[in-house]
Amino acid sequence: MPESPFPPLERRDRAGIEDWLDRLVSENRFTIAVVFPAVGAISLYASAMGWYPDPVSFMSFNPWFILLGVIVMRLPLVAGLAPLVDRRAAFALAAVTAYAFGIEMLGVSTGWPYGAFEYGIDLGPMLLGLVPIGLPVFFFPLVLNSYLLDLLLLGEKARSTSVRLLAVIATVLLMDLVLDPAAVGLGFWMYEGGGAYYGVPWSNYAGWVLSATVSVVLFDVAFDTEALFARLRSCPFMLDDLVSFVILWGTINVAFGNWIPAGFAGLFGVSLLVTDRFDFDVRDTIPGAGWVAPPKSD
């Protein structure tokens, strides 16, 4: 019988649950960060191309399948940040959530600030028929992954609020230059009148300057910078969600022939290698492939 991917829950208090999440992600890094986005990319592209035959046509853009896959890929981010969430952080994250829903509803209803757009498919259950209920698990990682990556890349310079803010805004825009063309290609959403950049208008990126600024300010309120630095350095999987992003959206852009966004995805891949965030040290977490791991010295 295959070994369960779920470690035992040894304690039911907060510290025990945080430890369980750490072990769950650590022991399944390859599955979470590589297998899930790879399968997701294939499934989403097959859905867009109409390749699912009738017996399994229910899998085509299945909203629950999409939401489940996204939640699994977010586990490294959740496990990494969980020990740092106190009451102040909870209020700040709630404020980011409220902002995400508010600005998205405003965008769908009025076209401001991202440009006039509408969802082409349901990305999970929809709130008031306008935006996905799971919006925070789509919205948060764009800014959080950018925030964490820039802390690593900038080092001591990231302690400056102005440097950190400008760097994260630029990184969020670069991430959206990868994400939006692929999402438009899949039909996740569409912009009225299209746009110059693979069907995306430049107004979308102006809107993301606003959203990134608000989010970075709230994340600064939420987390103590020194504690975040320390956790980031001690938690090897904290940016694994960015690995998933590179694989999922990079692959979909390549499939659609969106070479500029695919190239930007490659830049994020290089940044992960430069910061030593994801390498072949995860090979012993490949299911059934423990034989590829070198013997550990005593």
Produce the secondary structure layout.
Layout: H1 14-26, H2 29-49, H3 63-81, H4 87-110, E1 117-119, E2 126-127, E3 131-132, H5 135-154, H6 161-186, E4 189-191, H7 202-222, H8 225-234, H9 240-256, H10 259-274
Antiparallel strand pairs: 1-4, 2-3
Helix pairs in contact: 1-3, 2-3, 2-9, 3-5, 4-5, 4-7, 5-6, 6-7, 6-9, 6-10, 9-10
Structure description:
With 298 residues, this protein is mainly alpha-helical. It has one domain (14-284). Helices cover 63% and strands 3% of the residues. The protein has helices at residues 14-26, 29-49, 63-81, 87-110, 135-154, 161-186, 202-222, 225-234, 240-256, 259-274, and strands at residues 117-119, 126-127, 131-132, 189-191. It has a two-stranded antiparallel sheet with strand order 1-4. A two-stranded antiparallel ribbon has the order 2-3. Helix 4 (87-110) runs antiparallel to helix 7 and helix 6 crosses helix 7 (202-222). The longest helix has 26 residues, at 161-186. It is globular. The two termini are 30 Å apart. Residues 290-298 have low confidence and may be disordered. InterPro entries: BABR_hydratase, CruF, CruF-like. Keywords: Membrane, Transmembrane, Transmembrane helix. Pfam families: Caroten_synth.
Describe the structure using short key phrases.
298 residues, mainly alpha, two-stranded antiparallel ribbon, globular, disordered C terminus, transmembrane, BABR_hydratase, membrane, Carotenoid biosynthesis protein
